[in-house]
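Protocol step 4 of 5: obtain the predicted structure for the target chain.
Materials: sequence only (see below). No template structures provided, no constraints applied. The aim of this step is simply to have a reference model before the mutagenesis design in step 5. Sequence pasted as it appears in the construct record:
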Amino acid sequence: MCAKVGMIAPSLRRLTLLLGLALAAAPALAGCATDTGDDEDVESVEEPVTTVTNAELSAVARTRIDPNLRFDLLTRTGQNIMRASTYWGGVQDDYPRFPKARMCATNVSKVLFLAGITSYDQEGVRNLIADVRSGGGATYKMPQKKAEFIAKLNTIYGGHIPAGTLLAGMSIHSSNPGDQHVGFIGHTDRDGVVWIYHNNWYRPDNEGGARKPHMVSEANLRRGFPREWMATPWIKIKRNASGTVTDVTSMLPALDDMDPLNKDFQSTLAIPKEIVAEL
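Step 4 output (structure tokens):
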């Protein structure tokens, strides 16, 4: 046996040499592709999944929601999400990664974790909504025409959207990360306006330099943060005497991806299973 091995050894050496030369000439395969300039693509590879610390959870537990705010269909889980969202709005700028472009799903995932919900953890809006759907939650693709939107809304808990519901606006033309957005349904004010909590992108440069209400704060912009976790008005709901929704008005059309009546974006409501179980 040893003699046979010795006889074929030169052939093996030649084969090894040829393989080595071929591998050296071949293009290198690596997990990190060439930088495309897309922050979200880079971060989705390099950043870890969502995490929270015990200190953060303790801080959330101490956070108090403004007692003057009213929430529609506020369950225990919805209250936890609103408390976590309130906390996050006060500390987000301490985490420079988050008040940035194309980080809306990451921010929503962070708030969910702060609320003690770890079932949903995604960096993309479509995947986040798919997580809620596959996890047993209730999802509703909303029509873009007003009459149809109102009719569909009236089928969802009698026209009442639970606080803590995810609201996603996704382009019907593109699945690029910059063409979608997501946040939470928050409080409803005395005028019937439903507010959403999200990583707001509305800035003066979206309006030719003019500052308007509900924009990212000057303080954040001075820090180099083009986004800010905050509440902005979404839709104003009118009801008849029996509580049925009769009219809906978009309150901030400039925030186009979250405008449910914008023909270029599909709005989806996604109610986590944890909230569904409590209703």
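Step 4 remarks: The longest strand covers residues 228-239. The mean pLDDT is 86.
Proceed to step 5.
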